[in-house]
Specification:
alpha+beta; Bifunctional nuclease domain; 2 domains; 8 helices
Length: about 200
Amino acid sequence: MDKVELRFLRITYSHTHAGAYALILSELEGDRRLPIIIGGVEAQAIAIQVENIKPARPLTHDLFKNVSDTLGITLKEVIINDLVEGIFHAKLVLTLKDREVEIDARSSDAIALALRFDCPIFTYEFILSAAGLKVEEGEESEEEAEETAKAKGKGERKTAASMTVEELRTKLEEALDNEDYEGASKLRDELKRREGTN
């Protein structure tokens, strides 16, 4: 079967599933997108890595990476290898010395690990043909702008905007201590925006 390499594009709120998120993967050499519906906890695990937030203690995916690094296990690649009744299945291809093993995984966990190990993500052509969405020229920038605006949220932006830089830093520390990584990410974005304008 023909493998197609993908890259992580973004996470956005799902318009079709209440309380869920859409993990968007993009074809590396092409214009198709593969949206995968995931839960809030799974989205947070991916967002923490993408946003480069360092939790006080290792989370599950970080723990897996730490154990793998200690034991000399490498995550060679992640393959989204099946689509059954709308649910994506994935496998981890791991290497230890001269041995290679494949382990079944949820697609969200596989992507979270791929981002931590900085390894390639693949799918098969039949999956991309069945579930991929083609992005027309000019749509991408408009779509990204809309998603960015939605992700920021007017209320959250206004609240953060009314704080001083010191208050933002304090709230960021509190959010990290309370393991509120989604809130921490928003506060950090506001800090970056302010520091960029100074």
